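User: My instructor asked us to take a sequence, write out its structure as tokens, and then describe one feature of it. I'm not sure where to start. Here is the sequence I was given:
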Amino acid sequence: MENQSAKGQLRVKLVRSVHGRLKDHQACVRGLGLRRMHQAVTVEDTPSIRGMINKISYMLEVEEVGA
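Assistant: Let's start with the prediction itself. The structure tokens for your sequence are:
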């Protein structure tokens, strides 16, 4: 259980529109839990989340949240 709480979290904000983007980029946005522009969500820092963020990094603002 200690490893779960030790994992960091990331605050992700959508700053560019999903309209006209590739379908897999739109799917990454939805997978991160973002629905509209300027919405921010806090997600757990895992390799799969990092992969989605890296794929659509041009559409996001990302910052680490202290635990």
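For the description part of your assignment, you could build on this observation: The longest strand covers residues 9-14. Try explaining in your own words what that tells you about the chain.
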